[in-house]
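Run log, item B.
One chain of 126 residues. Sequence copied directly from the ordering sheet:
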Amino acid sequence: MHWAGWAVIALVAVTGGWMLFDGLHALLTGDFVTPDGGTHAGQLGPWAKLVSGIGLDPRSLLVKWVFVGYAVAYLASAAAFATGTTGASKAVAVLAVLGLWYLPFGTVTNLAVAALLLTPGLRIRG
C-alpha cells in the first residue's frame, strides 16, 4: 500500500478510535471525557457549540449515540479501505467530510484524510 494509504488508516484509527472511546464513555458514565481542572474543567470541546447551534444538547443521548455510530462507520470504512474493498475509499472520504464538525481535532485530521485521498499515488478509487 502507498504511504498515504497507511496515513489515512492511522488518522482514521486515531480519530474514530477516540470518538468511539469518548462516546462509549459518555454512554456508560453519563458524560464525555472533559478536563478535570483548569479554566476548561468540565467543558466539552468547541464542537459542542456547533452541536448546540443546530438545536441539540451536546450531552444528549442522541449525540452520544452519534459519536458511537459515526466512529464505528468510520473505523469500518478504514478496515474496508485497508483490505482494498471496492468503494471503501469513497466511504472514507464521505465520512471524513461528515466529521469536519468535530472541532478542533477531528476537523484537522479529517481534512488531512480528505487531502491524502487525493494524493497522486492514492486517488479515490471505485
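Observations after the first pass:
- The chain is about 65% helix and 0% strand.
- Residues 3-122 form one domain.
Flagged for discussion on Thursday.
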